[in-house]
Amino acid sequence: RNFVEIADVAMRYGGAEGTLALQRCTLSVREGEFVAVVGPSGCGKSTLMRLVSGLWPASEGQVWVAGREVSGPVPLVGMAFQNPTLLPWRSVLDNVMLPLEVVPAHRSRLRAERAAYAAKAEALLKLVGLEGFGQRHPHQLSGGMQQRTSLCRALIHEPPLLMLDEPFSALDVFTREDLWAVLQDVWLERKPTVILVTHDLREAVYLADRVLVMSARPGRIIAERRVEFPRPRR
Ligand code: ADP
Ligand code: ADP
Fold it and tell me: Can you give the residue ranges of the ABC transporter domain (predicted)?
C-alpha cells in the first residue's frame, strides 16, 4: 500500500439529503511525494483534506495513512489550512508549539526539553519572516502573518505527512514566493509526503511532483499531470 491511499471514497454532509461533496474519489500518494490538488471551488478539496487528516469520517470507502485505516485525527499529520485557527489566548510561539503537546512522543519530552523546542519554534518563525513575533498574540498579527504562524505549527513536530489547504492564500505575492522556497527547502531536506491544495497553478507546478485535478462536485480525481524536470529555480 502507498503512504496515502483513498479508495473509492464518498462523503456526504448532513444525512441522506445532504451535500454530496465527494464520490468515487480515489487517490494514491507515495511516501515522500509532493502532490498538488487543484479544482473548482466547492468541488471537495477541503473535504478530501479533512478525510485524510482524520478530522471527518468518510461516508463510504476507506482512507489509509502509513498502512493504517484512518479512524480519527492522525497524529503524524501536520496541518495548515486556509483559515489559520490559532488559539487566541496563546502567544504566537505557544501556538507554534501546540502539536508538541498533542503528539505523545514529543509530549513526554516537552517538559525536560522545553527550551530546545522553543528555540526550534523561534527558528521556524524566523524562517517564515516572523522573527521577534513569538511573544505577540494572534490578534496582533495580520492574516498573512497568522497563516505563516500556522505553517510553522504544521512543521514543528517534523510530521511525515503535511496536509496544506491553500496555506498561502492570504500572502502578498512576494511573501508567497518566499514561502514556496521555504516549503521546498523543508521538503528537499526531510522528504515528508505533502498534499497541497491550491488555486494557484504556478504554485502547484513550482512545488509539486504531480498535479491532480478534481472534477466539479461531487469531486473526484479526474486527471493528473506529472511535473517534468528541470523546474523553475529548483
Ligand atoms: P473546496 O475545498 O473544493 O472548495 P469543500 O470540500 O470545502 O470544497 O466543499 C465541498 C462541498 O461540501 C461544498 O458544496 C460545501 O458547501 C460542502 N461542505 C463543506 N463542508 C461542509 C460542512 N461542514 N457541512 C455541510 N456541507 C459542507
Ligand atoms: P479546535 O478543535 O477548536 O480546532 P484544537 O485544540 O483541537 O482546537 O486544535 C487547535 C488547532 O491546532 C487546530 O487548528 C488544529 O488544526 C491544530 N492541531 C491540532 N493538532 C494538531 C497536530 N497534531 N498537528 C498540527 N496541527 C494540529
Answer: 4-234
CA distance 43 to 124: 33
State pLDDT tens for residues 74-93: 888 999 998 999 999 999 99
pTM over 0.80: yes
Residue 73 cell numbers, joined:
485525527
* Per-residue pLDDT reduced to its tens digit, 181-228: 999 999 999 999 999 999 999 999 999 999 999 999 999 999 999 987
Q: Are 96 and 178 in contact (CB under 8 A)?
A: no
Q: What's the 150 CA to ligand 2 centre distance in angstroms?
A: 10
Q: Which of 76, 98, 164 to mutate to test the pocket of ligand 2 (most atoms within 8 A of CB)?
A: 98
**Spacing, Cα 79 to ligand 2 middle (Å):** 8
How far does residue 177's CA lie from ligand 2's centre (Å)?
26
